[in-house]
């Protein structure tokens, strides 16, 4: 399957990926502020979520106590939320020429459902590319985090862990490897950074990469 984005829009699509507690939302926020200061119109959003149906699916798939959710159902819920997000929010913004910063995208499904849940990376990738009619990010920022470090960071900030976060460390090890595999399959489309570096240093690398693509 080609890595070429089949849709050419005037906007720029950047996804933030990485394990839980990697600092994706902090970096997305910093990049958004830096780009806005330079006059760019930025839409910051997250998955699952970003639409009415997506937020409902988010609580169904992430909250504890929703009854049994088997792996395929889980994968399709994330994909359904993503389809709505792309068609209702992301594509219209890209068509207006905005910069879209998305906290998690297809690689999260490939890593968590494809590898973590054992559904197969290629099958999950195919289902998701169908759901979004092939829309891929122009750049994916991968914040690489050691699972125990990520767990430490997120439980320090917020004690409650969702259904996926509360999986054991070896699940999160597989997720980490899966993200790194995705990045090495198309290095020109990824910026891989060690999440433990100082926040400002990471922000500078990310801004430089974004500005290069906007030039
Ligand atoms: P996230 O929004 O990053 O968590 P938080 O609310 O703590 O910032 O993601 C929620 C969880 O959903 C996370 O554990 C990863 C998982 N997830 C998947 O398993 N598959 C997906 O496709 C996506 C987008 C998220």
Specify the CATH class. Alpha Beta
Order of helices and strands: EHEHHEHHEHHEH
CATH architecture: 3-Layer(aba) Sandwich
Number of helices, where a helix is a run of at least 4 consecutive DSSP H or I residues: 8
Task: Tell me the span between the first and last alpha carbons.
Answer: 28 Å
Supply the CATH superfamily name: P-loop containing nucleotide triphosphate hydrolases
The hetero compounds bound to this protein are: thymidine-5'-diphosphate
What's the number of extended β-strand segments? 5
Task: Provide the helix percentage.
Answer: 40-55%
The secondary-structure class comes to alpha/beta
What name is given to the CATH topology?
A: Rossmann fold
Mean pLDDT: 93
What gyration radius follows from the Cα positions, in whole Å?
Answer: 16 Å
Major sheet: arrangement of strands: 2-3-1-4-5
Give the SSE layout.
Blueprint: E1 12-18, H1 24-37, E2 42-46, H2 52-62, H3 71-96, E3 99-103, H4 106-116, H5 121-131, E4 139-144, H6 147-157, H7 169-185, E5 190-194, H8 199-214
Parallel strand pairs: 1-3, 1-4, 2-3, 4-5
Helix pairs in contact: 1-8, 2-3, 3-4, 3-5, 4-5, 4-7
The site of thymidine-5'-diphosphate (TYD) has 14 residues, from α4.
